[in-house]
Amino acid sequence: MNLDPGPAPEGRKLSVAGREFHLIEMGEGAPLFLLHGGGPGCTAWSDFGVVARMFARNRRCIMPDLLQYGRSDKQVIQGPMWTYHAGMMVGLMDALGVERADFVCNSWGGTIALCLAAHYPDRVRSLVITGSMPVFYGPLAPLPEEGRRGRNARDVYYGGEGPTLEKMRALMARLEWHDASRIPETTVRMRYEQSLDEGEMALAARTDGPRGDWQDLTNELAKVACPTLFCWGLQDAFLTPDYPMMLTRMVQRGQLHILDAASHHLQEERPVHYHQIVQSFLDQPEDAR
């Protein structure tokens, strides 16, 4: 299987409440939002470019760069961060004429989608959540680096001599992929070049919380009523499988699939298997899931 996503399509921009989203769309059918992770240089295409082509065979795949990432708006966010992102995502749905959709998400994007499903339940048909951290505790032990592993990795990446291609490759190998030998050089370079974006560099340099006020979503998870699949890498470097098992009990209709030989970005590392599991989940009638 070729894991190289290739060059990103041009996409387009949409204005929502005075902020600009960049998004790529592929395919036709029921709307499916693909929300990417929060690592340095992450975009919708870097995280979902390969598997999106598979989903696009029978779905309308909508891949936005989240605010403060990719070619979307880089302004500072104030107030509760996940609540803000969820509201802006609903605004994007309105701008696209999408009343209700499925969401397939990695890490940062998954926490946004969980918050969205809690506050806007009529807008979400189902969720697939991979590697997200909506609460700050685990059932067996404290979270690695007190749940700050991603933020610490970002500080290391942008610190010292600043971003380099070698530091990006090392970050992806240590935290995002189980088998570092399979990481496409195209993806490493794509992430590195995006991480040099002037807006992303400026956000990384700030110390005043430019991403908004951090939120624990414990209370919100109990409100998530849609079918929710937590799809996790057995070797996830951030959160071991006991954590998503806990999450399945916190939402109303949760289930869990553990995928071996995969870490935090299993949709990139194991795209065929990931697509098969997620597509099967999406294709089931809601009352059968």
CATH superfamily: Alpha/Beta hydrolase fold, catalytic domain
CATH fold annotation = Rossmann fold
The average pLDDT score comes to: 95
**Major beta sheet, strand line-up:** 1-2-4-3-5-6-7-8
Notable characteristics:
289 residues, alpha/beta, Rossmann fold, eight-stranded mixed β-sheet, 17% strand
Structural summary, described in words:
- The radius of gyration is 17 Å and the shape is globular.
- The protein is built from 11 helices and 8 strands.
- The longest helix is centred in the first third of the chain and has 16 residues, at 81-96.
- It has a single domain (12-288), classed as Rossmann fold.
- The chain has an 8-stranded mixed beta sheet, with helices on both faces.
- The two termini are 29 Å apart.
- 38% of the residues lie in helices and 17% in strands.
Map the helices and strands.
Layout lengths: L11 E5 L2 E8 L3 E6 L8 H12 L3 E6 L16 H16 L4 E6 L1 H12 L4 E7 L18 H10 L6 H11 L9 H11 L2 H8 L12 H4 L6 E6 L8 H9 L3 E6 L6 H4 L1 H13 L6
Parallel strand pairs: 3-4, 3-5, 5-6, 6-7, 7-8
Antiparallel strand pairs: 1-2, 2-4
Helix pairs in contact: 1-11, 2-3, 5-6
Quick rundown:
One of its GO terms (cellular component) is membrane. With 289 residues, this protein is α/β, with parallel strands linked by helices.
